UniProtKB/TrEMBL annotation, chain A:
The lineage of its organism: Bacteria, Pseudomonadati, Pseudomonadota, Gammaproteobacteria, Candidatus Competibacteraceae. One of its GO terms (molecular function) is branched-chain amino acid transmembrane transporter activity. This is Amino acid/amide ABC transporter membrane protein 2 (HAAT family). It comes from Plasticicumulans lactativorans. GO terms for cellular component: plasma membrane. InterPro entries: ABC_transp_permease (IPR001851), LivM-like (IPR043428). Keywords: Cell membrane, Membrane, Transmembrane, Transmembrane helix.
TrEMBL record, chain B:
Keywords: Signal. The lineage of its organism: Bacteria, Pseudomonadati, Pseudomonadota, Gammaproteobacteria, Candidatus Competibacteraceae. Residues 1-24 form the signal peptide. It comes from Plasticicumulans lactativorans. InterPro entries: Leu-bd, Peripla_BP_I. Pfam families: Peripla_BP_6. Belongs to the leucine-binding protein family. This is Amino acid/amide ABC transporter substrate-binding protein (HAAT family). Residues 27-393 form the Leucine-binding protein domain.
Amino acid sequence: MSGGHTTMRCGEFRTSYRADTTIFPTPMSRRVALGAVVLAASFPLWLNAYYLNLLIQIGYYGIAALGLNILVGFTGQISLGHAAFFGFGAFCSAWLNNRFGLPVVLAVPLAGLLTTAVGMFVGIPAGRLKGLYLAIATLASQFILEDFFARAEWFTGGSAGALAQPFTLFGFAFNNDQRFFYVVLVAVIVMYLAGANLLRSRDGRAYVAVRDHYLSAEIMGINLTKYRILAFGSASFYAGVGGALYGHYLGFVSAEGFTILLSIQFLGMIIIGGLGSVMGSLLGTAFMVLLPEVMEASAQGLGGVIPGLKDSVAYLKQMAIGLAIILFLIFEPQGLAHRWKLTKAYWKLYPFSY
Amino acid sequence: MHKHAVLHPLALALLAAAAAPALADDIVVGHLAAYTGPTSDVGRPYGQGVADALNYLNQKGGINGRRIAFQTVDYGYNAPQAIATYKKWMSADAKPVAVQGWGTADTEALAQFAATDKVFFMSASYSGHLTDPQGKSQYVKAPAPYNFFYGPSYTDGCRGVVQWAAEDWKRKGGKGAPKFVHMGDNHPYPNAPKEGCAAYAKELGFEVLNPIVYSLKPGDFKAQCLSLKESGAHYAYLANTSGSNISLLQSCRTVGVDTQFLSNVWGWDEYAEAAAAGAGRSIVWVVGAAGWKDDVPGMAVVREVSKVSDAAGSEVRPLHYMRAVCGVFLMRDAMLAADRMAGGITGTNIKAAMEQFRDHRPEELGDVCLKSTWTAEDHRGTNQVLVYQSTDKGFEKIYTATLERRPDWLGW
């Protein structure tokens, strides 16, 4: 609240197209975002490994979730195979590093690009299919890739999985939570800025046009097939980078980690976070990662009061995720991002909100 | 300050979930168990055995008066989950010196982590790949210096039952080469003995058929049984755990397969026998320790251990429980020996102590456990394979295979 007359404005006035499409709508939001990054950068100094681990999870899943949101929330397509692309990125990066000795720092983006190629190939049916039919087509890619992971010894190590080396830069290994947190933080910032930027570009607007009314979009001269496939490519790039970070963080990649369940969880993340919201992708991911932990902590806490609760933690976690999705669909279909907007609006007008 | 007050109890609760509240003097041990997931059928009794044995040892004064602080984590047979749990343990202030692990996928993946962190790792995976501490074998990707398990390796177990099958074929007066087939999921655990055992079967004159895949998760396996019937296999080795095997045997009974089934150490037990309602009659498999009803010296102690979680003493523990107890008591013996070494109870010393055991078995367990020998070059604890068969009169020991310690079998 320091900025003098900038906070005294009685509304948001934009006088140029440029101003209308900035990433941060107000100077305040830019300062808050910068402050959040500085705050996040200080986490490893005072948070223990347990919390850092959760934040790292939010980071790499969040990157992949943003990819799915570009596909589902912005372009209006559907994918039930996002986990397979996440896995492909993880295996690919480990493979590039183990097989060709490519440094991890290069293997990660390259894995993203190769995943993009696979995603665009798999997205080809999207040029022809819509709705449930597309969902089933992507489901097929989930199963095909999963089976490929379990059998392609040369690429994934087969059912035994592959080891992934830690992320290193100039001989410095980011091999613990404190260090790897910075890798993920940088990746999240870069990928989220790129994502927000993409949506301000011609291609990004084309995505939204395809979502809002494909017929109008086509009449306006948007090549539907091209943009649908491109959307699959963008989504896969994010999934690939997220997966690669996951692989190098865990140090081990196994086909078991990338089942249909994870694909559904990705969908859950963006539904809870808010379809068509960059910010919402991160909020939804945070919610999905933290929910099971909070469930476990409360089950441990209540374990003494309600006998048998501790033993059912494994089931409770899964059920809680399902329940959360249902509740959000009913009560907050626009997700956490919408709730966040309402909260902001409430405080902006406080105490005279209507 | 308010924020701090809110955060504090939450942080404590989360920490409690993250690590057992270990005291400075405690010996920290991690316990990975599969109480859920596709191997929970055998994971439950084994995990219970590990937990009971550790609690029992603590009741008896721990390791020279020091308590074993262990935390059991159910990882649902999901290897990435096991790795994440291990990393969580290793980032805590009180790092474990030893781990009691479970599955093959996760143990093989963790072998390199354990070697780097110098953590003694005792698994319920008996994969042959874990027996080569120096990485000399051409069949292992990396050495597994800190890995140990109690019992014959999966491949040796399979070799044992194949040896029995060869004699059985002769005894029955079979003509020509008997046909042998490996059946199991495409997963590191069923895959572990696949090639090594097939090679030995060939040596013994079997014709080895193409493996048949059936899921670790129980299901309707009639298609697989029809393939088996069509293949004309005389002996089929079931490499999955008992839950999956029960459904396979029932499907095969429906289809009318008359193949002699063989299985590994996790492939059959008392629960499976009861659940299969006769479909498993005549199955031949590997047993690694005494059974609950066996009246051998040392079983009294196992029954005491069992009372930790079953005060009434009414529970009948399946075969896996005894192997779990043997494994924990062996680790205890190694810890006691490590305590006499310079540096005390560290992962490296426990490993060194294990490698000094010659024909060793925990004393108070008498004849319950097999004698085990580990050396710095060879982590094949035992080369004795007890072969049992399910008969109308119950489980009967029908054969004991004593395999050579062939150097070309190390790590295979």
